[in-house]
Amino acid sequence: MLYTPNLDKPAADGGIDMSALCRALCDAMLSVRDEQDRQVFPTGGTRVLAYPAAHFAIADGGAAGEAAGLGSDYAFVYMNVRMAKGRSALVHQRVGETLNACVRQWFGPQFERRPIGVTVQVDEGHEVFDAKNSSLHPLFNKT
To answer: What is the C-alpha to C-alpha distance for residues 76 and 119, in angstroms, rounded to an integer?
Structure first.
């Protein structure tokens, strides 16, 4: 997740608790089930990372927001979920809808108070090389 750093402030000042949002998105991902009611994302391989952009410019710089009485402090969040190949179109849709519902819940107050854009994309990886090195997976793959 890449976001404008003007979101790194208290909610009362128009910000978002990014650590809590990351936890909510991770929990949402872990809740998605496939057609056989299996968890879609492996627990040990599910992670949500957020980075503030060092530099940004959005739209007209704030003129339209000021004219609409919403202020010029535009914000933007770009979320991209990369899934391994092989999941069905229904699973892709479930993942997108689940994450978008979480986003709408978290950013609902922001949408009402300020100009902000949030993009949620789900991609299916086309890996040409895919190595996974982890000591996390064994913690959750107990048989």
So the answer is: 8
